[in-house]
Design brief:
45% of the residues lie in helices and 14% in strands. It is built from eight helices and seven strands. The strands form two sheets. Strands 4-3-5-6-7 form a five-stranded mixed beta sheet. Strands 1-2 form a two-stranded antiparallel ribbon. α2 crosses α3. The longest helix is centred in the N-terminal third of the chain and has 17 residues. The radius of gyration is 19 Å and the shape is elongated.
Length: 195
């Protein structure tokens, strides 16, 4: 039945259970048919056209995202984040003017996520080029985030790059995209070099 398929389609979104998906489907059919058509068209186009930046792995419609393509960014500072949402949080909450590298996850051997899945070979190539002098590690304060941070710090040192880590203010076990702007801005401004 088409209605059931629509409800199940909404369930692919994070945090959307059966009841929420049902409410969304009914809303689109009862009151938002034009919005639903627009959503379907934009979603189809986004899935088709949005890929990853060749340099930082963030979402981009072009080979290079606007941040990597900008000539006004500080190419000596590279901030490594887990997700595009984390990059956006840092970009909007701080005055950071460097570049980014988006891991699209964090090391988790039990889930089959290793250095290759995070694009660390690409990151290593960037570090080896000699342009980056500081790598700011902005992974979450979770067990996997901390393991990823230590791996990244070792990688940076191997290439003669100074690793630093976001400092106080981030709750242990917290996710960056859910931290308020003031806390994130403070933590970013008071980052410290990793031991």
């Amino acid at each position: 039945m088409l209605l059931e398929e629509l409800i199940e389609a909404f369930r692919v979104l994070p945090g959307v259970g059966r009841k929420s998906a049902q409410r969304m489907a009914y809303h689109v059919l009862e009151r938002g048919r034009e919005g639903g058509k627009r959503l379907a068209a934009v979603l189809a186009e986004a899935v088709e056209r949005i890929g990853h930046c060749a340099q930082c792995r963030d979402f981009s419609e072009d080979e290079l995202c606007p941040v990597c393509a900008s000539s006004s960014r500080d190419r000596q500072q590279l901030c490594v984040v887990e997700t595009p949402a984390d990059r956006l949080a840092i970009e909007t909450a701080t005055g950071f003017r460097g570049l980014y590298f988006v891991l699209q996850g964090r090391l988790s051997p039990l889930d089959g996520v290793g250095p290759r899945e995070l694009g660390l070979e690409t990151l290593g190539t960037r570090l080896a080029a000699g342009e980056v002098t500081e790598m700011i590690i902005a992974t979450s304060a979770t067990v996997e985030g901390e393991a990823t941070a230590h791996y990244l710090a070792q990688m940076a040192r191997q290439h003669g790059v100074r690793p630093s880590r976001l400092a106080q203010g981030l709750p242990l076990g917290g996710e960056l995209e859910y931290v308020d702007r003031g806390t994130l801005s403070h933590a970013f401004g008071s980052r410290a070099e990793m031991p």
